[in-house]
Design goal:
Length: about 150
Amino acid sequence: MLKEFKAFVMRGNVLDLAIAVIIGAAFGKIVSSLTDDILMPIIGKIFGGLDFSSYYLVMGPIPAALSGSTDYVALKKAGVPLIGYGAFVTQLVNFLIVAFIIFMILRVVNRASAIIERETARLRREEEVATPPAPEPVEIALLREIRDELKSRP
């Protein structure tokens, strides 16, 4: 079983997937930082508040110890039912950034593969034109002569 597991792990697809997951996690952190530290403060400033993640609606009673508190994390931790639309918008912006970057990567890959495909087809055509046809084998030439001779007889 250990040998089978080792063979499974060492296959190219598994290693590629592991590398993709690691790079994806690092990329997710970069996108989260871009969204949380750069974009959302700008969007929050435009809409009148600096911390966009603190936009929420209270759906239930707030405990007396936290009355007057506007700390979303503290209220959520205390079990107050909240609709955190600011946090949702932040995650939506994260998603849109990742989706746009993936779209751009796929667009570049598709264009590059189309260019490679055209170049490969052009090289094949040039090879076909540049390569003279192979000489006819002697046996085929002899069979053609015999055929032509038989056709010419009455």
